[in-house]
Amino acid sequence: MKIARKPEWLQKQVRLGAHADMERLLGELRLNTVCQEARCPNVTECFRQKQATFLILGTACTRLCTFCSVEKGAPLPADPGEPARVAAAVAHLELAHVVITSPTRDDLPDGGAALYAATVTAIRRHSPATRIELLLPDFQGSRSSIARIAAAGPDVIGHNLETVPRLYAIRPGARYRRSLEVLTTAKEMAPATPTKSGLMLGLGEGLDEVRAVLADLKEAGCSYISLGQYLAPSLRHQPVVDFIPPEIFDRLRREALQLGFAHVESGPYVRSSYHASDYAIGKN
Ligand code: SF4
Fold first, then answer.
1. Which of 186, 33, 200 is closest to 103 using CA atoms?
2. Domain-located, residue 168
3. Which of 1, 28, 126, 215 is 20 to 30 A from 239 (CA-CA)?
4. What confidence score (pLDDT) does residue 281 get?
């Protein structure tokens, strides 16, 4: 089976080596980014702007999502020194906005919530002006884990629904309703903190299915949404069904704004953390 040829609007080149400084810093601090692990097409642009999404809690995930290139397998124990190293990188890079995410750690009793909270606290101590956005796993719906996160006081709490309910077989171990509950619970426990979610398009979903998910997210109190084109990381991953043209992304963006989302990023190359700092300033 061949990977489908990308249309003209999806020809961005990743310039390897164009961000050696950033990679050196990450290496020195023994830090991982989802930018590198998920082979994000925006890495050159973001790293050049000193933007990165830090991946804490290791690089191995306990889930088997068929669209994701994050390594699967038995994770290493959580590293208590990681929060301080992330905080050091944030201070060194003088980041105005930082995104922190992780693989899903179903092997940990709290799913890693304590390390997330410690990372927020460490960044606050060294860079009090930095906005902190967390892109969370579902913690298997654990209210105590979400409460721990809310109590740490991040500026944005994110959890991606990734796709429409009919296609949830590509996310074994995840549940559509439970993922929505992660967002409603976060809103209940931190009412003033905006929540955010993201969808990949091009996996075979219909426009009305996407609209139904946007309505569910709005009802869940979600403020921010990202919509981007799914690109298969390799032949072993979930194949792309459709390449969604830019005009469809534009139409969905307008519809989402009409639904009342405070900020929407929608486009072929949009990823959860792409232009993350624009959400807070509502640069629609
Ligand atoms: S849970 Fe997240 S990191 Fe793990 S396989 Fe799924 S998408 Fe990838």
1. 33
2. yes
3. 215
4. 67
The stretch 162-171 carries a mean pLDDT of 98
Rounded to the nearest angstrom, the distance between the alpha carbon of 89 and the centre of ligand 1 is: 24
Is the distance from the beta carbon of residue 157 to the nearest atom of ligand 1 less than 6 Å? no
- Nearest protein Cα to ligand 1, atom 5: 65
Protein residue with its CA nearest to atom 2 in ligand 1: 103
Instruction: Tell me the torsion sign for CA atoms 62, 54, 223, 214.
Output: negative
pLDDT at 7 over 70: yes
For the Cβ of 174 lying below 6 angstroms from any atom of ligand 1, the answer is: no
Q: Is 87 in the pocket of ligand 1 (CB under 6 A)?
A: no
| Residue 233 reports pLDDT greater than 80 | yes
Long-range contacts of 141-145 (CB under 8 A, 24+ apart): 141/175, 141/178, 141/181, 141/182, 142/110, 142/111, 142/113, 143/185, 144/110, 144/113, 145/110, 145/111, 145/113
Residue 15 pLDDT > 90: no
Atom of ligand 1 at shortest distance to CA of 62?
A: 4
| Residue 8 belongs to a domain | no
Number of structural domains (the chain) is 1
Mean of all residue pLDDT scores within the chain: 92
161 lines ligand 1 (CB under 6 A): no
pLDDT tens across 105-132, in order? 999 999 999 999 999 999 999 999 999 9
Per the structure, the complete domain to which residue 259 belongs is given by 13-277
Position 284 in a domain? no
Q: What is the CATH number of the domain that holds 85?
A: 3.20.20.70
**Residue 4 within any structural domain of the chain:** no
Contact between 140 and 179 (Cβ < 8 Å): no
| 283 pLDDT above the threshold of 90 | no
